[in-house]
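PROTEIN DATA CARD
Card holder: Prohibitin
Chain length: 277
Origin: Molorchus minor
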Amino acid sequence: MSAAQIFNRIGQFGLGVALVGGVVNSALYNVDGGHRAVIFDRFSGIKKQVIGEGTHFFIPWVQRPVIFDVRSRPRNVPVVTGSKDLQNVNITLRILFRPVPDQLPKIYTILGPDYEERVLPSITTEVLKAVVAQFDAGELITQRDLVSQKVSDDLTERAAQFGVILDDISITHLTFGREFTQAVELKQVAQQEAEKARFLVEKAEQTKKATVISAEGDAQAAILLAKAFGDAGEGLVELHELKLLKILLINYLGLGRYLIYQGGQNLLLNVPTPGNN
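Structure generated from the sequence above:
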């Protein structure tokens, strides 16, 4: 065998290996971590087996792998709805979702690979409208935990019907219409004015009570004084007159002079006549 024939054989063998390698490589696919795959067969449809992580074989042209992400992913769903007292409510729900791996063939068959776009907005809107309508605007604020829990329970139950797991549900945004916001502000101002008015009324009441107590004290003092005059008779009046006369004489005669009252008559002792030493 000549060298040319040997090289020709080697070339043919290498070409065969390359062709086989290309065919084998085209029949392989990888499933990364956190993903699963289902196989679509042109003759039998979606196979029920769910393929796990790793490298796997499939029949080119006849079969096609469909890769799904089974890790939790976030999604925000905004909804505009009405409360029990007919107030407009803007509410946004943040959801962490993932598919049930064993139900991926069913999910792909019924909903397709974009199942979250088909399911989450519709069921979230449905549940939020139903739950929010059970509370008035004030309760949505004061009972937010209860509202969130009820939304979580109802939405988890609805998502499970489509093979979707909701790992977390939270209300991230909750606002009301402009009219309701203005009404709340006016109510707060009115409450502040009412508190101020109540304070002024209480202050006036205390001032009134103080005035009444003072008047009652003055009246009681007058009654006691009148009673004293009634009990002492004219003697009390005469005593006051004598005190007044004493003050006048002391001022007129100077210090050291004194007034003696005896037997109901006024006697001046050691009182010189004006002008005499």
